[in-house]
Specification:
Layout: H1 2-25, H2 30-52
């Protein structure tokens, strides 16, 4: 949870500085293009990670630890 909080704090600090720099030096609409690029990268990363980590497939339900298996 600490890492989640740190990342959120860093984003709140860097976001206005980065967007202000882009707004002043590139163009006002550049902030929206930057946001579009970051959102597209996040979407692609989401799908790549989702394809790499398939959920395990079980033919039978996993027994509880207190249940003995018939061998």
């Amino acid at each position: 949870m600490a890492m989640y909080g740190i990342v959120g704090s860093i984003a709140w600090g860097i976001g206005p500085i980065a967007s202000g720099y882009v707004y002043d030096n590139v163009a006002p609409v550049g902030v929206w293009y930057l946001t579009l690029g970051l959102a597209a990268m996040g979407t692609v990363a989401f799908f790549i990670i989702g394809r790499r980590r398939p959920s395990p497939r079980h033919d039978q339900p996993t027994p509880h630890p207190w249940e003995k298996t018939a061998e």
